[in-house]
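This is your field. Pick holes in the following sequence-structure pair:
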Amino acid sequence: MTKIAVIGTRGFPGIQGGVEMHCENIYPRMNHVGVTLYRRKPYLTEASAHTFPGISYVDLPSTRVKGFEAVLHSFLSVCHCIVHRPQVVHIHNIGPAMFAPLLRLFGLKVVLTYHSPNYEHKKWGMVARTLLKMSESLALRFSNHIIFVNKFQREKFAENILAKSTYIPNGIPAVERSEATDFLRRHGIHLGKYILSVGRLTPEKGFEYLIEAVQHMPDVEQLVIAGGSDHDTSYFEKLKQLDVNGKVVFTGFTSGEDLRQLYSHAQLYVLSSVNEGFPLVLLEAMAYGLPLAVSDIPATHLVDLPASTYFAKADAESMRRCISAQLAASAGTPVAYNLTEFNWPSIAQRTQEILAAVR
């Protein structure tokens, strides 16, 4: 049995985030593996009490202070790893991977999953961006193997990085549309008459451009944004102020059956991000057969979409034209997408093979 320690996620289940969703989909699918998952106490919910065979949790203190949260928790997790000696430490994202040299110094093997270049996110200041770039350099140098969820990001690096790296995309589980509507009714959402966007309320998601775009669109009755704030609520307050015509419904962090209802009864899914690693929510929307309007960024070209699906990033007018055209073209008809490549069981198996190989 391969003993794996997992660092760089807030944890699962019941915790918001793309990395968290990624982890929740791969580790429970691994066979003959013992996983120790390091979770951040401030983010645990009632749902986090659920357990999975072969997975144990180590819940350590952290903070919600932006810029210190991941560093503090990752350092404590690394110290625990050094004492308890897993065969492989699997680190998610470049920030927590700043401690890869320390792990290697103590003779531990390290695999990094590179989700996104976090230093490109608007929320970080100059000092944080410099630290993240330094972390990226250390992570790439000292990791035994690197998994990129975005093949375009992988192609940016030199031959020595390509030689010890692999592209494995994110995935999407099989979904089943929900006929229930109670969650929609509780939030005053009009059945089949809203467009949907899902994600944490952070600047890289570009929600301000989306809200601006729909304000004077007669063909958009409601915009539903499902997601909660990371740290402070200043960005959320800004978004609410932009909704001058009262078209936006914020549902907060939404998961499970409630999220199924949102996907099942929407007219259109919009991904307004200005920066993404690999947007799992886009795959979810495709699995539900929703028509799409998405930012023209590298991450959205990891799936095969028609040119008419794209709008210029951070451009409310381009977004408005695309949304109108997609609504007119779709006429409520589900779209069939080819999602064969994005199969979680296969992704989990390939990841497990890499983790076993570096022992």
About this structure: Residues 126-142 form the longest helix (17 residues). The CA atoms of residues 67 and 128 lie 7 Å apart. The chain has a mean pLDDT of 93.
